[in-house]
């Protein structure tokens, strides 16, 4: 029954002296309170649902973003005595320092406050491209993350000709 019909029925009982004025007032307050609770709640459910959905979409977008740029600065290799292009080198794809750099870049990503990705291990590392003139090396691998396995591509490079540090750029492939 609707609240209006309940109130009309209650008023008819009072007018017929079937209930007292106090009983009428008590029942009327109960009906109005119940009506107010329902009226006050209807908008909260969709708002909570939409808010939760937006949070989920934001988190999924952050986790599965196809082109995440993560960069980590590392020391130049010890065998680079000067800043000339000929003596600078980037590590091999499966090198321990490359693995540490990739793991660190993933852990300290731009979305670290949203998703806490950690690389547990990697496999299937292979070189895709190497340019000794820059020097720059691009590699593919399968990263075993705390959120599951995913193919990645990482690029190790010097940002400019005078740089004594190399950078790593990690991209998650879909």
From TrEMBL:
Name by which UniProt lists this protein: SHOCT domain-containing protein
Pfam assignment, any one: SHOCT
Keywords: Membrane, Transmembrane, Transmembrane helix
Ranges for domain SHOCT: 7-32
InterPro entries hit by this protein: SHOCT (IPR018649)
Transmembrane regions listed in the UniProt entry: 41-63
